[in-house]
Amino acid sequence: MKKKLLGVLAATMLFATACGDDGGDTGNNEEGGGEAEGSEGAELDDLFVTVATGGTSGVYYPIGGAISTILESELGIDSSVQATGASVENINLIENGRAELAITMADAVQQAYEGSGAFDGEEPTDNLRGMASLYPNFVQVVTTEDSGIESIEDLEGMTVGVGAPNSGVELNARMVLEAYGMSYDDIDEDYLSYAEAIDQIKNGMVDAAFVTSGVPNATVIDLDTTHDAKIIPIEGEAMEYLEENYPFFSAETIPAGEYNNDEDIPTAAIMNVLLVSNDLSEDEVYEMTKALFDNLENIQGSHNAAQDITLDTVETGMPVPLHPGAERYFEEVGALE
């Protein structure tokens, strides 16, 4: 009798368990969220997200810090900020699985995607995916009032800081010189980060430096405290050449008053973009994108340049496809055309 009763109870429990499983699956499919988001949150707890940025004196680093803080506080994700040599290194970190998010310049991303420029001879990294376009970087050719340099052509024969090798700054330096019919053969190039180059301008060892960043840039402000800093314009036929041959460039102006400039300074600009690892799932990237843009004011407060990050420009100048998770979020909030 006991054996028979135990058998009935066991069968009843198996039946109840089976019904419970079916009901759970059906509920998740029909609701399309709710419990699924809760389980996804548990998976997010297991993530470690490295945010690849740039030098600690640049703009990428504080913005990356704000991103990392939001992921930790809002989603419980363990995250760290990594100082790097910026764009090209960041792309390689994403590609090699050593970073999950990376701030890069659109020109470097396009070259990696196509296997051109700094990535010439390499297999195109066509699995790169974007989370969002961020803010424009301004190409700033920085010198001092007493240098005698008034134009890009005046850099001929001068010692010029062109950025760390294969950095986004260095790629820009080559393109801008090309637009003026020049190359490294015409200058004494010095492969210094822009922070190092600005220090060498102070010491009289470098005549000018390429600084590609948001504005204002802290190193340029620092130079202006001891010297009269000056930014050389990029305009006219050279600017037209850049837009025609490198469509990630756009003609912009550095507004009067950003430094000690009384007037707007015409120059070239390139969008900065946030890349995300294609190894992350759609749900993971959706939650991360939502958290960042739900707390956008925290990112905008990390640096003056970040105030240009808005939902209106998340696709502007993005040279690679958006990750499906980011695309899903932006479609939900009406940010995509």
UniProtKB/TrEMBL annotation:
Signal peptide start-end: 1-20
Top-level taxon of origin: Bacteria
Record carries keyword Signal: yes
Biased composition (Acidic residues): 32-41
PROSITE patterns for the chain: PROKAR_LIPOPROTEIN (PS51257)
Entries under CDD domains matching the protein: PBP2_TtGluBP (cd13567)
Keyword set, alphabetical order: Signal
InterPro entries, alphabetized: TRAP_TAXI
Entry keyword annotation includes Signal: yes
Pfam name, any one: NMT1_3
Location of region: Disordered: 20-41
Name of the protein described by the UniProt record: TAXI family TRAP transporter solute-binding subunit
Organism of this sequence: Alteribacter keqinensis
